[in-house]
Amino acid sequence: MIFWSLLLLATSGLANIVFPAYNGPPRLKYSVVPGYFKQSSLATDDRTYDPLRDSFGLTDPSPHRWYRFRQNIHALNMNAPEGVRYVVLYLARHGQGHHNVAEEFFGWEAWDCYWAMQGTNGTYTWGPDAKLSPRGHSEVARTSKAWKREVPHGVPLPESHHVSPLSRSLSTLVETWKPVALNPPRPVCHELLRETLSLHYSDRRSKASYLREMYPEVEFPIEEEDPLWNFHRESEIGRNMRIKHVLDEIINNDPNTYIAMTSHLGVINSTLVALGHRPYALQTAGVIPVVVKVERDLEWTGEPVWRKKESWEIPKAEMRSVCPGYEPVLVSGQYVDGMGVWPYS
């Protein structure tokens, strides 16, 4: 990371600029505690397994399964050495959005190479800030019912909620939890807890004033305008670093044990990387619970894990093809098969 930053500065003629010292949260190290949820096992086929019909994947099938689970998590924390804690993350993906419908219609390649940079094809609209589709609302209702079904068995409900600033995730959070329990403290929106930063029009969020009006249940400590949507696309490496950064912020500032994060497939994939969890293709409106051991990363030397790019660090936007053979769109940076190339993310 340091090498690429220096290279980028040198090539832009700005190598004499010094960044301020990093004063963000301590960097944390995560590891998955196996044995509690089937999704953590490689033996579970993520293409066919439906955890909503199976106590969210809890391996204990007994009538007192969740009470035993809570006792086990409590014991882990009571016996944890200094500087170590255990948390249970409920990673939730939004229900199907209109952009998911459009991507399925156009096909992955045409979507990533051209249509994602539009907001409509003239008959169907998916941007900006794609909303849930009718099927998406139905999927979320099913997830909410799955939580209600486990309440009599003692499922530990989230003590805190963290959510993406995009409408499809906000709607998923509210529609999932209002029928079950959505008590204070209020869910908190995080600007960085969002899908791959990109030129995709569906990922351009609404104004903060609109979101506050539409989702009064949620706290929005964000700017009025979207500061992150632009004409270049984040790489997978860049997204992993961003999500690790915001995950550290959340865990450092949230003392609770049972923490819910409602976001996007890309966010969840990067979160699983940070946790050291196996890859898991979570379906829309799906939930993957993970028992996580949290400790300070003693090898961290204090350099920033992620920071927002300055305007002069981002290549100039221009009309060109993202992929060979497709109509040009307004983009900046470099791409391979529609994905951003490090270090422009």
UniProtKB/TrEMBL annotation:
One of its GO terms (cellular component) is cytoplasm. The keyword Isomerase applies. Pfam families: His_Phos_1. One of its GO terms (molecular function) is phosphatase activity. It comes from Tuber melanosporum (strain Mel28) (Perigord black truffle). It comes from the Eukaryota. Gene3D superfamilies: Phosphoglycerate mutase-like (3.40.50.1240). InterPro entries: His_Pase_superF_clade-1 (IPR013078), His_PPase_superfam (IPR029033), PG/BPGM_mutase_AS (IPR001345), PGM_Phosphatase (IPR050275). Keywords: Glycolysis, Isomerase, Signal. Residues 1-15 form the signal peptide. This is (Perigord truffle) hypothetical protein. The lineage of its organism: Eukaryota, Fungi, Dikarya, Ascomycota, Pezizomycotina.
